[in-house]
Amino acid sequence: ILKIRIGWVLEAIRLYLELFVKNPKPIETYSPYEIRRILIKVLTVKDWASRENLTVISRRKIEGSLCRVPAHFYNQVWEVLERCPAGIRVNGKELPQQPTLSNMTRSELTFALLVESILHHIQVPEYRQIVVELLNIVSVILLRNPELTFQRQLDLNTLVEDAFTMYCKDHNVERGQDMSPFFAAHYSVTTGYLARAVVNNVLTGGSMVTPIDFNEPKETPETCNIS
Length: 227
Fold this sequence. Notes:
The chain is mainly alpha-helical.
């Protein structure tokens, strides 16, 4: 978490109260001690989510509210951007390849804050978290296939929608505007559909070419398992 945004933290607290407190009171009526205890729970969700059987969608909502991302996430976004000459787009906001890669470095805070600011334009917390997972998946696919690049702009909304369409088809779910069934699916399930959407995008709009070398050191550890 790069920035603690009070509004989003309050949203995460509200979600926690809805999940774990029967007939929750307005946040402002809780004592400072109670708020501190709840805040600690919210900020450490990854430590207790499995132990307390937190549902997948509830965890995505809380982590999405906080804009929590995996380790090395911003390095991964940098590597994806290297392979997207037309840039990355989500919710109408664009992350252009140039001059971003020329003016910044992968490790500087300015780049990470730029990526985070674009993610914050996604208003639905669980959708934001799915996009974080999607970028992680794209990074792993490109790492394993160095000959690939995206010739067209990488539209993350389109990839999520394509994955959702495939999920609905396979699970006999009516394709509507509500993506909650997809957001509630286990990580292994959503990873599979998101990866398929990325591969389909590569087949229709990608190109088997040698990517541009921006003379930056590469990171090799993979943070996402795709089979």
